[in-house]
Structure formats: structure tokens, C-alpha cells
Design goal:
Blueprint: H1 2-13, E1 35-37, H2 41-49, E2 55-60, H3 65-79, E3 86-91, H4 96-101, E4 109-114, E5 117-123, H5 128-139
Parallel strand pairs: 1-3, 2-3
Antiparallel strand pairs: 2-4, 4-5
Organism: Scytalopus superciliaris
Domain Thioredoxin: 24-140
GO molecular function: protein-disulfide reductase activity
Length: 141
């Protein structure tokens, strides 16, 4: 128990390096390139608001336990859509301005965006069946 607490403190104090160079997509093997981390407001505008495909936006935080459960589950479900939808991950601690703009008051918050507009949203954890229904509604399947 003491070791876990010491490790947790160490992780909180260790500076984090960015996961991907600015302006570059960050894909995961589970997402087969369909998932990326938002780098800044301009990146969000280009890759989310101006996206020709529907976009699932996952507002999360590193310290959020439910986010760590939902994120991989959501990435897996987006990957199953075979390129019909993409997923943008937004860390609210790094992009507070986007969280405020999209009225995110709790994490995880997931937005469904189409043609730059928010068409659906949920807060909290969902099971795979609920996520599948959410995505099918977004892509019109």
C-alpha cells in the first residue's frame, strides 16, 4: 500500500512529455489511426470542426478513473466503425479553453459532432451496447 502511494506521488510529480509532436496525429493500434489527441485550438478546428466525417470528442483527464475505463472502450468501438467516424481526445487540463467552450463540467464527457455541430452528448461511463447505439446514431446507420 505504501509503495503504491509513493508511486502515485512520483507519477504526479513527474513532468509528462507530449504523446505526439504538435500537429501530428496520434493513432493507436486499437483505433487503427481513427483516434488522435487534439494538440491545440487550431488543431481542433481543422480536424474536428472542419472534419468531413462525424467525430466523437472524448473530453478526459489523466487523473480521472472513469476516463481510463471509458477511453479504451470508446476507441475500440470507434475502430469497429471501419473509418465511418473518427475520435478526438481532449485533455481538459491541457485544453481548458475547449472544455469551457463546449460546456464540459464533468469528465468523461463525450460529444458527437457532425459538420462542426454538436448533435449528441453524454457524461460518464457507458457499456459497449450503449456506445454502439451512440455511434450508430451519429453515423446514421
Amino acid at each position: 500500500m505504501a509503495q503504491r502511494l509513493a508511486l502515485r506521488r512520483l507519477l504526479l510529480l513527474t513532468p509528462r512529455a507530449p504523446l505526439a509532436p504538435p500537429g501530428r496525429a496520434f493513432g493507436t493500434s486499437a483505433g487503427r489511426g481513427s483516434t488522435f489527441n487534439v494538440q491545440d485550438g487550431s488543431d481542433f478546428q481543422d480536424r474536428v470542426v472542419n472534419s468531413p466525417k462525424p467525430v466523437v470528442v472524448d473530453f478526459h483527464a489523466q487523473w480521472c478513473g472513469p476516463c481510463k475505463i471509458l477511453g479504451p472502450r470508446l476507441e475500440k468501438m470507434v475502430a469497429k466503425q471501419e473509418g465511418k467516424v473518427v475520435m478526438a481526445k481532449v485533455d481538459i487540463d491541457d485544453h481548458t479553453d475547449l472544455a469551457i467552450e463546449y460546456e464540459v463540467s464533468a469528465v468523461p464527457t463525450v460529444l458527437a459532432m457532425k459538420n462542426g455541430d454538436v448533435v449528441d452528448k453524454f457524461v460518464g461511463i457507458k457499456d459497449e451496447d450503449q456506445l454502439e447505439a451512440f455511434l450508430k446514431k451519429l453515423i446514421g446507420a
